[in-house]
Amino acid sequence: MSGVVQAPMRYTGPRPNSREVVLVLCVLTLILLFSFTAFISRQYHKKIHTLADEWFAAGEERFQAGDPNGALTDYQNALVYSPNNTKFQFHLATALAEARHYDQARPYLLALLSESPGSGEVNLQLARIAAQNNSLPDAERFYQGAIYGEWAGDDPIGMRWQIRREFCDFLISKGAINQAIPAVIDLAENTPDGDAARLKVVGQLLLRTQQWSRAQQVYRSVLSSDRRDEEAIAGAGLAAFELGEFADALDDFNRLSPERRAQPEIARAYEMAHRSLAMSPYLGGLSEQVRAQRAENALSLAQARAQSCARQLGISLLETPPRTELQITYATAQTMGDNWNLRNLRDFPDRLEAAMQTAFSIENAAAKECGEPQGDDRALWLLGRSRNMVNR
Amino acid sequence: MPESPEGAAPAVPVTEPASEPTPAPPPVRSRWETWTHEVFTMREDRFFLLLAVLIGIFSGLAVVCFRLAIEWTQIELLGSSLVPSFPRVVLAPTIAGLVVAVLALRVFPAVRGSGVNQTKSAVYISNGYVPFVTVIGKFITCALAIGSGQSLGPEDPSLQMGAGIASLIGRRLRLSQDRLRLIAPVGAAAGLAAAFNAPISAVLFVIEEVIGQWSAGALGAIVLAAVSSVVTMRYFLGADSLFRVPPFRVAGAFEMLDYVALGIAGGFASLLLLKSIVYARPKLMALPRWTHYLQPAAAGLLIGTIGIRFPQVMGAGYAIVDQAMHGQFTWKILLILAVLKLLATGFSFLSGTPGGTFAPTLFIGAMLGGAVGSIEHHFIPTLTGTVGTFALVGIGTLFAGFLRTPITSVFMVIELSGNYTAILPVIISTMIAYGISRAYQKVPLFDLLARQDGTVLPSLEERREMMSLAVEDAMRTDMVVQCEPGETITDIAKRAEAQPEFALLLRMRPGEWWLLDREDVMRLAPDASPTVTAIRAKSRGPVPYLFPDQTLSEALAVMADWPVLPVANRANLAKLEGILTLADTLMAFRKAPKEEM
Predict the structure, then answer these.
(1) What is the pLDDT averaged over residues B422-442?
(2) Are B93 and B163 part of one and the same domain?
(3) Are B434 and B459 within one domain?
(4) Is residue A295 part of a domain?
(5) If contacts are CB pairs under 8 Å, which of residues 124-153 in chain B contact chain A?
(6) How far apart are CA B136 and CA B145, in angstroms?
(7) What ipTM does the predicted assembly reach?
(8) Residue of B nearest to A6 (CA)
(9) Which residues on A lie below 8 Å from B72 (Cβ)?
(10) d(CA B596, nearest CA chain A) in Å
(11) Is residue A68, in this structure, part of any structural domain at all?
(12) I want to staple A135 with a disulfide (CB 3.0 to 4.6 A). Which of A127, A130, A227, B351 is the partner?
């Protein structure tokens, strides 16, 4: 097995006069070999292109049939025969992402991104992977890349709108409301006025990011073209409720079908709006007696809430000097108790506002210490919030 | 046309008389003969360079055909899927193994093994003779073996095929013996360059491993051949790198430490592969000859069995390396693939199946690198180097540890990836692996194989490690009386008398010493007047001089019959650093520690 081959004995050394012939033969052989190589190379490339296309088609079929795992092998086979085909690489990466092999999809996508940094679809896939990996900075970067990237289809603007929406959904789902607000506003600004379906989506996102007045505005614009659109009515009602416009909210809710009104979120808002209105001393047309009565009730309710919260926290409300906000506001209510009794509130209506503000402050302090209230306390708390909004 | 010595006008201006008729133009045949004579009588070294380009193109074409043959065989035998069906995966390598064994033992007896040592043997033993039948045999048997799934690669056979083509052309052109010896490495570089799509690595590998020394005479031709073969190959198969490496970056200096672990792992993995060859190859070779017919088939059967569950280990595996670079495998799978490929390559190589070890080495290195990278990522999530980066560095690491060609390994990674970013990690990891492999396995792979085959071939590593004694190790700083031309004979004689053993060197001018005849000085001194200077005495010169950093081998070459040679200072030729004698030189060689073999 040595592999050592001795030269044959007949070898007699150089004989330069035969070089011309040998070189001419060499060139002729070269031409022949070149032609042969070109022929088989062409045949080979034809063959592997066919194979690549066949495997890719098989992969597409499986992927479309909802079998991304099965499609993976087909795409990988296709890439064996056409390793630099970016389309195949992208489809493989998409199938990997679909099959939740995010770490495996990422390198392919990064390679594709380095080749075409402006590709919208590559950025989008990378953004989705980053979103799955809870990587907020990467997701933001790639979503922005996808939004401002190139889209080859018929409707790039529509695609960008969808990505903006996906981006907003992602940010909201991750609780990144501060980042979500500008993204939702951007989405709203990029939504055509007449497109009710998309406007309703924007309205929902605005509600979820607590942009109540913008949401109300969006829903009202939908309702201006279709007054019966229940989704828009519900959205507008919820926005009105959150803005403390309980009467408007009730108006909207009352226009809804019973089924829609029975939806938990709307039902809760509907009930709260009712309660808040029933507790409000600020409604027009109420007598001084009723206003005073409602204010006194609010104070009592708030003080009871403070006591309950103090018990929950295991503190005394009568501590001197009062330290916490709850203790301070409760002490105020106690001190002013005589001034804010039913008679004084009725006879001196100017004291009503101070009494109600104290009740609201107690509710606020209790909400901070013991969590958001329920029932009448919640109605009073919401009333306070809406009153403060009006004052601001 | 003859020119005057200054190269200006012709020595004899030739003017045609206007009245004489214009001679008829020479016939076509005559003109052709004149032209061919001019072309073919060009200086031998220029003709050799032209030939290198021709060899490069031939080798490039041969490698293209070879690669296509492997691919085609693979598609026909194993199917076009990365996951071959069950009967094929076992039957193809087993039956092909049988066929290959018969061909290798009966028809093409010189095709067994990788081809690197056979080419080296051609250079050092057979005056550059590589029979063309070996090229044909290598082409057929390797295409069949690799295409059927044996864990071997096409690079080393391409190297041998290139050498064989070059040897054939050289023989047909009746080149001189010296040129014939040089032409095989030229073809080898061309073949390897085309197979790897990496001309620099091919040139370096041929110098490191085939020629075993930096030969300026061959370098130009080797580079030309490598480049022309790569250009030819790219014309048919495209210019893309062998692997597509996803973008990566290597962070600060501290992160370099992460590649130390890879260097250590790669070093020990290559050592394991080397030691298994050291142990098992002689034993398998010693088995009865009839078993040699079955060994490739047995290897094929074992590989096919592995391939049922892990088909990735079959064949050269470039597509799988590409997948590893793209992070397609978990660290467990990467590690399993590294171990199984190591086994499969061992089976194929030890069974004597024709085929190369480069591709499997790259595969094992990539898998091992990827596994180390994945594990490090698990513990250091902030690591910037991707799994692909580690796989890429792993390639160079195992290559350096197993094949013991560190310079080639570093450049190969850069060429294969087309990316310079990984250079520092590669150097760190490669050097560690190389150090480990060298520390625990003194003889490099190809030397080892040659010795097992009963031949002793030189290697660059061996020469690199050879103790190189310098003039300063043997020279004496005393033992010389240095004289000036203006010095009187009387003074010189006094000094010479005081040191009877010392040589008398006369410095005529900076860098020119003459050896004074001591006896003549002593003879002239008693009667010499104070005005008689050293010039009057008998002397020999000018004596060739040395510098302290020159090797003793160089000193021996210039020593001739001079009893003593002056050693001058490189910055000041007037300054004598010492003298060197033959006795001192031989003493230094005797005292030098002997290298462990």
Answers:
(1) 92
(2) yes
(3) yes
(4) yes
(5) 125-127, 129-131, 134
(6) 14
(7) 0.76
(8) B126
(9) 44, 47
(10) 25
(11) no
(12) A130
